[in-house]
Design goal:
By secondary structure, this protein is mainly alpha-helical. 74% of the residues lie in helices and 4% in strands.
């Protein structure tokens, strides 16, 4: 029984890693003038977090992002090896929220840290912090459960992805303040697309396969 369970988890990891890599071939938004691309993979990361527990989600995110990095697609050409952390940490942090009531505090806290880091170290627009604020005020919905919980946790997961990308943009790329203002509308679109898209995928999976959890 244990071996069958392990095989099932490994199959999920392999399948989701593959789906993430394939989705990462489909750009939905240019990044830094075409130096890299935000891809459909951002929709898959919350799905990985939903379907896998934290350790397995970490492995799935890492394997998928490694394939993406080797192919030099997505934001791999921009951030190098650091790009491996962007979906991997988000999948793991998001999974703790999906699979543990108190685990919600981990992605919430990471977003809080990321927002504070941006506020104190970046010369960028404060509008960038609007989705961070949305995460912070939505904590009761994430803790209490209910019909909106999955949507909120999809937001938390994709925002964890954004936090890592933002930290790398500040510390590695040193993006100037004016550029943050230019890319903020694109960021709103990308995170909204990831949140709603992953929510619809998860809702579809729950209806089609009620026992998938």
């Amino acid at each position: 029984m244990k071996r069958a369970l392990e095989t099932k988890v490994l199959s999920k990891i392999a399948g989701l890693s593959t789906i993430y890599a394939v989705a990462s071939l489909i750009p939905i938004s240019a990044f830094l003038g075409g130096a890299g691309f935000i891809t459909l993979g951002i929709v898959i990361v919350p799905v990985i977090a939903y379907l896998l527990r934290p350790k397995a989600a970490f492995v799935s995110g890492l394997v998928g992002s490694l394939v993406v990095y080797v192919l030099q697609i997505g934001v791999g050409p921009v951030y190098g090896l650091v790009s491996l952390l962007i979906p991997t940490l988000a999948a793991m942090f998001g999974s703790t929220g999906f699979h543990s009531k108190t685990g919600v505090m981990l992605p919430w806290g990471y977003v809080l840290f990321g927002g504070l880091f941006y506020f104190y170290t970046s010369a960028g627009t404060l509008l960038w912090l609007l989705p961070y604020l949305l995460v912070l005020v939505s904590l009761p919905l994430a803790l209490l459960g209910g019909r909106w919980q999955v949507l909120v946790l999809c937001l938390y997961t994709t925002m964890c992805e954004l936090v890592t990308m933002t930290l790398a943009s500040i510390t590695i790329l040193h993006l100037p303040g004016a550029l943050w203002a230019l890319i903020t509308p694109l960021m709103f679109y990308e995170r909204g697309f990831a949140t709603v898209g992953s929510f619809l995928v998860i809702t579809g999976l729950r209806k089609a396969m009620p026992k998938i959890e």
